[in-house]
Design a protein that fits this description.
The chain is an alpha+beta fold. It has 2 domains: 2-198, no CATH class; 201-329, no CATH class. It contains 13 helices and 7 strands. It has helices at residues 2-5, 9-23, 27-45, 47-52, 58-63, 95-125, 179-183, 200-215, 228-238, 242-247, 250-263, 288-297, 309-325; strands at 53-56, 74-79, 130-133, 140-144, 157-163, 171-177, 192-198. The strands form 2 sheets. A 5-stranded mixed β-sheet has the order 1-2-5-4-3. A two-stranded antiparallel ribbon has the order 6-7. It starts with a helix and ends in a 5-residue tail after the last helix.
Amino acid sequence: MDKVARLSSTERQELFSEAAARKGVTPAIIEKDFWVTWVLSKLFANDELARLLMFKGGTSLSKVFRLIERFSEDIDLILDWNVLTSEEPLEDRSRRKQETLNNTINEQAKTYIAQILHPLIASQIEPVCRCVLDVDDGFVLNIHYPAAFPDLYLRPEVRLEIGPLAAWFPSGTFEISSYAAAEFPQVFAQSSCRVKAILAERTFWEKATILHHEANRPTDSVQPPRYSRHYFDLARMAMSWVRGSALSRLDLLADVIAFKQRFYPRGWAQYDRAVAGTLKLVPPPHVLSVIRQDYQNMQQMIFGHSLTFEEMMATLNDLEKEINALSNQS
């Protein structure tokens, strides 16, 4: 990958344009996907960073498991909380003490990201790219890459969103490659790299509990923007092998809920009802138009097999019924 990263801008333009034509997407998407993959290769090729970080979230569903064909410009990473505190965050303690510890770990993480991770990651990617601490979010490092294509929607940067309060298991080591490398492997001296990532089954339940959370959001509370991606991701996973695999692991659902109740408590989310029998995936009628518009806005980020809004909601409705029917089997 380093060979391609060091090509001239004109040479990268030619490579990414040809790959884009074959895949049916814009060259800017092929370009950004290459830099996302290149950054991941640098993170997990370094022994120290590989010990500290774990890949998770929507981008892992696309890059690692090929479960969705939705482009994401962010890389979600878990930072090992053991470097931030000598306390065990999962030990039983009062709600107030847990909240205090959660806040302390988050503040320690910002310091660690700024003082340790920032220079360490910069040393791995510069001078090809530039690593900058986000001015508004202490959990984010922005990797600026040498863009060969202007694009009104895609910023020429890869966002590393790094947080300590996330589960480290179950996970595994996987091989990934860029779309450009898949189309033209002969151009790459090294066409793939290995990363550590959270298993898709856990991400399935993470997404499901986000939808349950949103189904219970109060009517006077506004859903954050770009949330339709969670509905799309779960619907696409529900149409893949991971559906059956995840539904056989209700213990993972229980673990996800226990984790959220400890680290991200919110009374109105009704996490105690996020179990087989009472789990909610389908949004209430009053927010459907908002999600529909948000979903329409993200269409340019979906390539390959997309879904109509109606197909997406029908799939989620079917999945909700299947999950809740599992309560009769216990």
